[in-house]
Amino acid sequence: MFYYHVLTAFFIYALLQGGEWLLGQRVNSFQAVSEVQTSPNDGKTEKQSCAVENNDRTRLWPRYQSPLAIAWRQKHFAGVLLRCHNIGNRGASKLVTMRRRLFNSHGFREEDILRFKAEISTPILYNISAALFWLSRKTSGRHDLSKGMRCEAVETIEGKEDDNGKPVYRFDISHLEKCPLLLGTCHEVLRQFTDGTSARRAIEDIMLNKRFLVKDNTLMLVPFRE
């Protein structure tokens, strides 16, 4: 039993750290800012922070991990680029669509926009790994809920054959609204167990809640929930 708990703890830790080991970098912009030892609210510091973040030391065998991480990023970006050329922005969320339109209106190259989308998948991996663990943990003992979620997913999954004739099954994320039990359970897991923050920079002086003055060009950390 002792070894079972040890292996379980190691599995959870590896799951949460998997994105870090795979990509060979730590995605921690706030630690990167602190390492620069200057104010985080000026453009020069922000540029230095990005450099520290993208070239941060790896935890395991950096000599072997770094080439693997670079090759993985290049392969990942090539897949994103190919998908965009094939289907465009079809099926993207409203947020992604509006952000792409904003970048286009300010003259950003299509390749740079896609590279940005590919890079943000790194922190997303952390959230998905933790959310999948808690989703499995909270639904494993509730048979009625698990059965209902499976029935919804089965009706939504699309099956086809690949070039070798082997069956391939795909769950189209745009059809998630057809699975109210699955969607509601995912939202509840995120509500209870996700406590992240997002960095935002003020572009003008603004008063928050009629109490706090945020000056122009100030970097703020906004929680995803109260």
From TrEMBL:
<dbReference type="GO" id="GO:0020037">
    <property type="term" value="F:heme binding"/>
</dbReference>
<dbReference type="InterPro" id="IPR036396">
    <property type="entry name" value="Cyt_P450_sf"/>
</dbReference>
<dbReference type="GO" id="GO:0005506">
    <property type="term" value="F:iron ion binding"/>
</dbReference>
<feature type="signal peptide">
    <location>
        <begin position="1"/>
        <end position="18"/>
    </location>
</feature>
<keyword id="KW-0732">Signal</keyword>
<dbReference type="InterPro" id="IPR053007">
    <property type="entry name" value="CYP450_monoxygenase_sec-met"/>
</dbReference>
<dbReference type="GO" id="GO:0004497">
    <property type="term" value="F:monooxygenase activity"/>
</dbReference>
<protein>
    <submittedName>
        <fullName>Uncharacterized protein</fullName>
    </submittedName>
</protein>
<dbReference type="GO" id="GO:0016705">
    <property type="term" value="F:oxidoreductase activity, acting on paired donors, with incorporation or reduction of molecular oxygen"/>
</dbReference>
